[in-house]
Predict the structure.
Amino acid sequence: MRHPTRWIALGIAVVVLLFGIVLATRVGDDPQAEASKSQLLDDPVPEFSVRTSDGTALSSADLHGRVVIVNFWNSWCLPCRDELPALKVFFDRHADDPEFLMLGIVRDDTVKAARAFVRERGIDWTIGFDQESVAALAFGTRGQPETFAVTADGVIVGYQYGPSTVADLERLFARARQGSA
Amino acid sequence: MSARGGLPWVLLAAVVIVAIAWAAWPDDARVSVAARAHDLAAELRCPDCEALSVAESSTPTARAIRRDLKRRIAAGQSDAQIRQAYVDAYDETILLEPEGSGLGVLVWGLPVVVLVLGAGGLAFALRRWKREPRLHATDADEQLVAKTREVDER
């Protein structure tokens, strides 16, 4: 080796170049893009327990055997209000299906405000109160609305970040009905 | 390099090793639930805000995570289990510092590799420069200079 210093400099340059390539290609620069993905796709539904409107406990184990659309929402969130008509249309289409459950989990709101909103807007699907945010954190939510599709055998197969349209909800429902791969 | 000349290097290496060991050594004094929760909150990125830790943020999600951390610690979960639960739910971007595996190895390891290679290269170059003899003028050089001066003086 005639010029070892040059070889060392070349080695450093290669390592720095590799580091730059890794940073440029593997580290995302758009926080919204990161937020719009769910880490839980194809995973079992996380363990949680919420109180429903009539005060009974509903846990993740109670979802088994039914296709479930889980929607995180609250009364003060404007995108949730925008989404409400689509949720109603979708729920009315499938309300009679005994193997379907639509669960709206209240995220970051008071029970009183959420109950009043449910009454005023005539929301008929199951509402879960998550006062300690256990469900919201277990699902890895970053805000609301966020919607998850769960198969009858308890696997999350679909996710929608932000307000869903009726078409989005139908797509999630169809994916959940197909079951986990 | 003489034994006396190498002493500063040995001392420097000793200082670096002691500093790294001091920084990496776990602090047994921090054992309370609140202190552990705060330390973990400082390691987690607030999911609904940018560039803030859960400890620094006052968003509802950050407050919920701080409560959840205390709950998990009280339930007997280890720091590693708690970190893993959040990585499982949110992915590795929830951690403000990269983990020591996968991509995290590159983030931690490459600067060290660059540092070692750079230090090695510098030490090698310095030794080589020191070894090289200073240039001396040959008789032919001196004759050439004398001739040139003679020409200039005329």
Q: What stands out?
A: The interface with chain B takes residues 4-5, 8-9, 11-12, 15-16, 18-19, 22, 26, 28, 31, 34-35, 37, 39-40, 43, 46, 108, 132-134, 136-143 of chain A (CB under 8 Å).
